[in-house]
Amino acid sequence: MRPLVILPGMPAPPEAAGAVLVRDLSVDGQRWAKGRRLSDDDVASIGRPGVEVDPGPRGAGLPGARSSSGHTDELAAYQPPFTVLVLEPGDVHEDEAAHRLATAVAGPGIELRGPVESRIDLVARDDGVLRVRAERVERIDRIDPLQLFTLYDGQAVARGQLVASVKIGPHAVSERLLERGLRVARARPPVVRVASFIERRVAAVVHETVRGLARDRFERGLEVRVRSLGSSLTAVLYATDAVDVMDHLGRLTRGAERVDVVLTAGAASTDPTDPFFVAIERLGGRVVRHGVPAHPGSMVWLARIRATDLLGLPTCGAYSRATAADLLLPRLLTGERVSSRMAASLGHGGVLIRAMRFRFPGYARELEAPVGGSWAGPTEAIE
């Protein structure tokens, strides 16, 4: 692309049609925004004698740029000139480039909106969990002037929420650079997608004494968590001994009573002889992860028995506190299976102080949380 200085009220050369404004203009009182591609009618309007064009305080042309009269800037400076960029073969306008990149980046659960000020926005089509391939975002953003910016991977999002944007820095980009970014964006899985919540059957097994108001509060907390994410809580079962734990897990992981997700509370997560871990092994399952890299909730554990996933709640997470479990449960309720990768992904952003509440689903933002902005001492912990 190359600059061309236009003198209002004077005929412009043919290449002005299709050129791009680099600043906002007022043309006969009408605002023309920067980035606008001049149509034939636009060129005729600004070349009409007596036209009123206000290029603003920085309307001077570029030194040495050829003006529409063919004169240099020494002559053009006596009139209010303005600069446009003439696109040349191989240049792609910012709006087109941003739309092509956004289309390549966006996966399932995403809608495109815009352009607005040459930015294409990606919004969630449904409530769900945002999934971002952060390493590929960085690879795209290393290509100057491509810009892709997103919310955090694993963040719960609502329908219509902005989750990412694509923008091109200048008013045009070379096809060669754009294609480099598109090759990264088109790889699988998608760079940005929203995994929608699906209706799943969830049950809870508790191996501890919970009675009266505490039991009511516990069950209400589970109900709010599960139903707000679009699933159903089918049962809350209490176990007084290892036999009960075995029986409950057996019923909930096979046959007519099988559920998709079992939430547990009351396990001693560091004791390999705990009834939950013994039962999981005897039922043919396995513990996928003992603890996760996030706090509070670092003692959350993940397991699988056949087609059922298990999420072991920390004691604090069984009641009214927001923990790492409230980042994992939404993902399970999109149909994602427990895995070491799921657990490991919590590490980036896993310091779950109040400032990180935006990562949680809506219900968890109302739960108890640390009061400060850093781990200043015991008052910052919520376990």
Description of the structure:
The protein has 383 residues and is of the alpha+beta class. The protein folds into three domains: 2-86, no CATH class; 91-196, Alpha-Beta Complex (Aldehyde Oxidoreductase, domain 3), CATH 3.90.1170.30; 201-370, Molybdenum Cofactor Biosythetic Enzyme, Chain A, CATH 3.40.980. It has ten helices and 21 strands. It has helices at residues 40-46, 73-76, 94-105, 134-141, 175-186, 212-228, 242-252, 275-282, 325-332, 340-344, and strands at 2-6, 20-21, 25-27, 30-32, 53-54, 82-86, 91-93, 110-116, 119-124, 128-132, 146-150, 156-157, 162-168, 172-174, 192-196, 201-206, 232-238, 261-265, 286-290, 301-305, 308-312. The protein has a six-stranded mixed beta sheet, sandwiched between helices. Strands 8-9-13-11 form a four-stranded antiparallel beta sheet. α3 packs parallel to α5 (175-186), α4 runs antiparallel to α5 and α7 packs across α8 (275-282). The chain is elongated. Mean pLDDT is 86; it is low at 58-67, 69-78 and 370-383.
Task: Fill in the keyword field for this structure.
about 375 residues; 3 domains; 10 helices; disordered C terminus; elongated; Molybdenum Cofactor Biosythetic Enzyme, Chain A; Aldehyde Oxidoreductase, domain 3; four-stranded antiparallel β-sheet; six-stranded mixed β-sheet; alpha+beta; about 25% helix; about 25% strand
Cα end-to-end separation: 59 Å
CATH hierarchy class name of the largest domain: Alpha Beta
CATH topology of the largest domain: Molybdenum Cofactor Biosythetic Enzyme, Chain A
* Rough outline: elongated
How large a portion of the residues is in β-strands, by DSSP E?
A: 25-35%
Tell me about the largest β-sheet. Answer: 6 strands, mixed
Helicity range: 10-25%
Number of helices: 10
| Cα radius of gyration in angstroms | 29 Å
Strand order of the largest sheet: 17-16-18-21-20-19
**Total domains:** 3
Mean pLDDT: 86
Specify the structural class. alpha+beta
Unreliable runs, pLDDT <50, ≥5 residues? 58-67, 69-78, 370-383
CATH architecture heading of the largest domain: 3-Layer(aba) Sandwich
